[in-house]
Amino acid sequence: MKTSFQNLNKAFDNKIRLGIMSVLSVNSRASFNQLKEVLEVTDGNLASHLKALESAGYIAVNKSFINRKPNTNYEITPSGAAAFESHLQALEEILKQL
């Protein structure tokens, strides 16, 4: 069982980061406001977790303007998708061993 726990990715230990990756793994992209609403978190809290995932290379940020208003969208990167899939597989292995 020790091996399965070692395969968990520390970047996804936090429930907000896990939620972000879950949303982005089933949607091609999500806006800051969509993530904030779905995860029910504050702007600052969400921003810090998004920055951590971006720094790890797990998500990409796309900024644009819609009718002169800033619009920020996030999408999962190929390396982020692979890391998240590995994390989920490790969780499944742990559950199977219980």
TrEMBL record:
Gene Ontology BP term (one): regulation of DNA-templated transcription
Domain Winged helix DNA-binding positions: 16-95
Origin superkingdom: Bacteria
Stretches that traverse the bilayer: none
Protein's name according to its UniProt entry: Transcriptional regulator
Entries under PANTHER family matching the protein: BSL7504 PROTEIN
CDD domains: HTH_ARSR
